[in-house]
Specification:
Layout: E1 2-6, H1 12-21, E2 25-30, H2 33-41, E3 46-49, H3 55-63, E4 67-72, H4 77-86, E5 87-95, H5 107-112, E6 116-119, H6 125-136, E7 144-148, H7 152-160, E8 167-171
Parallel strand pairs: 1-2, 1-4, 2-3, 4-5, 5-6, 7-8
Length: about 170
């Protein structure tokens, strides 16, 4: 089965690894080449620039008609809309990113393709147990950069610009 991870930042790069650990083939989608490189490094079978002409078609071709599931961690309503085009009939789109504004849904496509669209902010206790087991077994490794608290403004600027690979940790020490 195929999964698409849309948005390969702090959460997305770990999602790629979880999906691989669960036995899925993974297509990573992002607008930044450095994030796509990170996706490849963490195991993605396919990396697609969301802005590229034919991005949706690349995913549809590689997955044999669409992914079984699409996880959107990107903070972009355009990514939400694109996800609905990348999922196959009876597939699931899970929305995790929280962009501002509205998300217009193509009702006709969702109904005819019987797509499930769900939002998720936290997992279950079982999900947490599984996540800890994957990390303990070395199946998942987060990219974490520690920076001094004095650089907090720089971290926020990099975050706004989408220039953070993985997670940033502020050191108060």
């Amino acid at each position: 089965e195929w999964g698409v991870i849309s948005g390969v930042g702090g959460l997305g790069h770990v999602a790629v690894q979880y999906a691989k650990a669960m036995g899925l083939k993974v297509a990573a989608v992002d607008i930044a080449e450095d994030k796509l490189a990170l996706a490849r490094e963490t195991g993605a079978d396919l990396a697609v620039n969301a802005f590229a002409t034919g991005a949706v078609d690349q995913v549809l071709a590689a997955t044999g008609g669409g992914a079984h599931g699409v996880l959107v961690t990107a903070v972009s309503t355009a990514a939400f809309a694109q996800a609905l085009k990348m999922v196959r009939r009876k597939g699931t789109v899970s929305l995790v990113g929280l962009p501002p504004g509205e998300f217009p849904t193509p009702i006709f496509d969702v109904v005819l393709k019987r797509i499930t669209v769900r939002g998720s902010i936290v997992g279950t206790r079982r999900d947490l147990d599984e996540a800890v087991a994957f990390a303990t077994d070395g199946k998942v490794k987060a990219e974490v950069t520690k920076v001094p608290l004095a650089q907090i403004n720089d971290v926020f600027e990099r975050m706004k610009a989408g220039k953070i690979d993985g997670r940033m940790v502020l050191d108060f020490g």
